[in-house]
Amino acid sequence: MNTRAGLVSRTGAFAMDAVILAVGLRMTAWILTGTAHALHRFAPPVDLGALVLASTPLVIAIYLVTFWTVLGQTPGKWLMGVKVVAKGGGPIGLRRSLVRLVGYLVSALPCYLGFLWILGPQRRGWHDRLADTEVVYVATRRRAVPRERLAARILGELPASSRH
Fold this sequence. Notes:
This protein is mainly alpha-helical. It is 59% helix and 6% strand. The chain contains eight helices and two strands. It has a two-stranded antiparallel ribbon. Helix 1 (7-39) packs antiparallel against helix 2 (48-54) and helix 3 crosses helix 5. The longest helix is centred in the N-terminal third of the chain and has 33 residues, at 7-39.
């Protein structure tokens, strides 16, 4: 059984995803606005940049559900080394991803109190409980480097032919 991720790891993953989404949406809006400005009279009569920003909640929902369903982790969760799994392990699938998304809204409504349950002993928020999911640390495999080679690498004493 994997160890459940705590509030700090999950908040870090959330912050990274927020930055990825904000930058991506803002750049898309900027490119569309610039393109419309360059096309001048051939541009559509709609402010495409504002349309992209107005569609932000839908884009976020698609981003979360797609990554949870397909990979079990968003890019932010991947960077933090955590993954969403069904309680007890395994992929969560589309239905649980959608329930988890609704659970995010439920967790956020009462002043984000549903997320504070992650501080409890089970480390599961309301959205985790509703979808019967948990966020766990992903075990990573690292190639073992003998201490002698590591010390030589640090000190720069390896011959050029053995460097990678």
